[in-house]
Amino acid sequence: MAICLITGSGGLIGGETSRFFANKGFDVVGIDNDMRSYFFGEQASTRWHVDSLKKGLASYTHHSDDIRDEKAMDALFARYGKDIAVVVHTAAQPSHDWAAREPLTDFDVNARATLVLLEATRKHCPEAAFIFTSTNKVYGDTPNSLPLVELETRWELDTSHPWHARGIDETMSLDMCTHSVFGASKVAADIMVQEYGRYFDMNTVCFRGGCLTGSGHSGAELHGFLAYLVKCGVTGAPYTIFGYDGKQVRDNIHSSDLVNMFWHYIQAPRPGEVYNAGGGRHSNCSMLEAIALCEKTTGRAFNWTLGEDNRVGDHIWWISDVSKFQSHYPDWAYTHGIEDIIKEIHANSVERS
Fold first, then answer.
1. Distance CA 147, CA 286 (A)
2. For the stretch 202-233, what's the b/e string if a residue is b when 16 or more beta carbons lie within 10 angstroms of its beta carbon?
3. What contacts 215, CB < 8 A, 6 or more positions away?
4. Nearest to residue 285, comparing CAs of 337, 208, 343?
5. Single pTM value for the model
6. Which residues have C-beta within 8 Å of that of residue 342, sequence separation ≥ 6?
């Protein structure tokens, strides 16, 4: 039986990937040591999600090893060997703010652990597809130099710019900008994933995500803005917007749409490829617009305040152009829009609250 090995299996994308590949007939090997609770506290723990996978998926096997542990990863990959057909690497330290607190830990988790996994893949299952969940933060604050126009509820790219219609594509420079410590560690991982594809001719791919979201997210203030926003809307907890008058724009892609991208890629892998992967023009909102949608969904006023300072290296406007991926895999399409996503997260938050 073919194996799909997933790091960060208790997270939003890891859990979605586990269910998807189990339903496709794969044996799923999940790795998750709940380090998210160390990053963001018990409210962000992934234990509930791992327990759900263990109970709900007969083909799921869990390991709580640390992906930074080279010996443990080598032993785990050796155990399953060439039965591993797909490696989906979703585990990460995902927060701008947290990374600045412990830069060494952030780099160890995001960059060095990715190299550990790449080398274990090359050694034990070199034919496997290696899928890396990168981030749009690899572009640093370069998007902020685009010609932006301030509207009533959002910033928007000037209509004269060639990226206005579809969003930002993969030709944007990663260089000479402020990334945040988190963004820099993800750049290192992203480039190494590409290099293993190009230098060693492995089937590696980087998906540079926008805001990845869905009801499986253990949202926290420092990461998972839409899930955390809806959680605050349900509970009445205070929410702080960091700068830009709440008009900063993010595209939001549902976890199932992203995982379906993974599936299409492994049907015809392209070594060392890179794709922007967000909600695009199909699914995006500003913070103010997200709050309005949340109020509409919950039926209650939102308890929010505006902080003056934005996060270092944070984007004012980000919308992903996914047309490169669609040109390579034309059968892929979105199935969720922003309102659908918020309604789904709200229903799940009510159920769990």
1. 17
2. bbbbbbbbbbbbbbbbbbbbbbbbbbbbbbbb
3. 227, 344, 345, 347, 348, 349
4. 337
5. 0.92
6. 226, 230, 290, 293, 294, 297
Q: How many CB atoms lie within 10 A of CB 169?
A: 15
Token pair 């998007």 is found at 143
Residue 276 sits in a domain whose CATH number is 3.40.50.720
* CB-based contact 229:296 (threshold 8 Å): no
Residue 259: give the domain boundaries.
3-352
Distance CA 217, CA 44 (A): 9
At position 117, the amino acid (one-letter code) is L
Site of tokens 């929010």 = 304
Which amino acid appears at position 167 of this protein? G
Both structure tokens of 185? 């560690």
pLDDT, one tens digit for every residue, the chain (353 residues): 799 999 999 999 999 999 999 999 999 999 999 999 999 889 889 999 999 999 999 999 999 999 999 999 999 999 999 999 999 999 999 998 899 999 999 999 999 999 999 999 999 999 999 999 999 999 999 999 999 999 999 999 999 999 999 999 999 999 999 999 999 999 999 999 999 999 999 999 999 998 898 765 554 444 446 777 777 777 777 887 888 888 999 999 999 999 999 999 999 999 999 999 999 999 999 989 988 888 888 888 878 787 777 777 789 999 999 999 999 999 999 999 988 888 888 777 666 55
Domains: count for the chain: 1
Nearest to 85 by CA among 202, 199, 5, 30: 5
Give yes or no for a contact between 281 and 167, defined as CB atoms under 8 angstroms apart: yes
CB atoms within 10 A of CB 324: 16
Measured CA to CA, the distance from residue 153 to residue 287 in angstroms comes to 8
3-state secondary structure of 210: coil
CA-based max dimension of the chain: 57
